[in-house]
Amino acid sequence: MKSVNNLEEIRKIIGRHKRWDLIFMIAGIFALMIAVLTFMALFAHMLFDGMPRLSWDFFTSFPSRRPESAGILSAWVGTTLVMLVTAVSAVPLGIGSGIYLEEYAPKNLITEIIEINVTNLAGVPSIIYGLLALGLFVYQLGFGQSILAAGLALALLILPVVIVATREAIRSIPVTIREGAYALGATKWQTVSDHLLPYSSAGILTGIIIGLARAIGETAPIITIGALTFIAFLPPSPVKNEFPYVSFEWLTAPFTVMPIQMFNWVSRPEEAFQLNAAAAGLVLVVMTLAMNGLAIYLRYRMRKNIKW
Fold first, then answer.
1. DSSP secondary structure string, 171-211?
2. Quick check: 232 pLDDT over 90?
3. Which of 75, 126, 140, 173 could bridge across to 261 with cysteines, CB 3.0–4.6 Å?
4. pTM, whole model, 2 decimals?
């Protein structure tokens, strides 16, 4: 009789846990659907408003006081150059820092403090990075309100993301890979370069692209360091016709980016400028989704080729 009562009690506990699992699943699906439907509604609104404005002239024209002839040429060129500086600055430094903290750094109090701070920096509001860049890059180092200052500001923003992604990707590799390499006489650097980095490259690339996708839509740091809201010229070309064929004058040029151009148009009362802002927002959303899709594709392809 006692065993029957215990069995009934166990069944009640299991049934109660299943009900809570069902409730949690329904709540999760409901929250997900709210987020997805909200995004779809906003995207559909931008699509219907901005799609008629998308044309070749819209991409190859400068901003103008006449909405029908205004374009995003200076904005998307500025965005591309700023993101180039961001990637060149943040990616090598972030990957190197992640490798050092995970494989080389001694496990002591200083290392733990650094790790905690790196993790916390990933959640710091972007305006803080803008103020830091304003004081350090614009005033102290004298870079001014330039593409270089903007790229370095966004590099600081995504640097913790790249470091954390690198460390998590390296941690996911089985310990037996390291042990096998050391057993065959490999040095630590040979183990890292020939085994850990190739096997963790999918996770590292995913973190990098997601970080860049976040940076491409940031406005607060760019406004803080002085991005122009109206610019009708392009920075100097990085490529020259004479030796050494490469120019870095564009790094010190004034600039604008897509979010700033959208802000400029939204602040105007004319409805035609609102349509221009919707078209620019549509382009920015497509660029962000493409970067995230690229991250998913690269992760799938690279993990598919890994055989432990």
1. HTS-HHHHHHHHHTT--HHHHIIIIIHHHHHHHHHHHHHHH
2. no
3. 75
4. 0.82
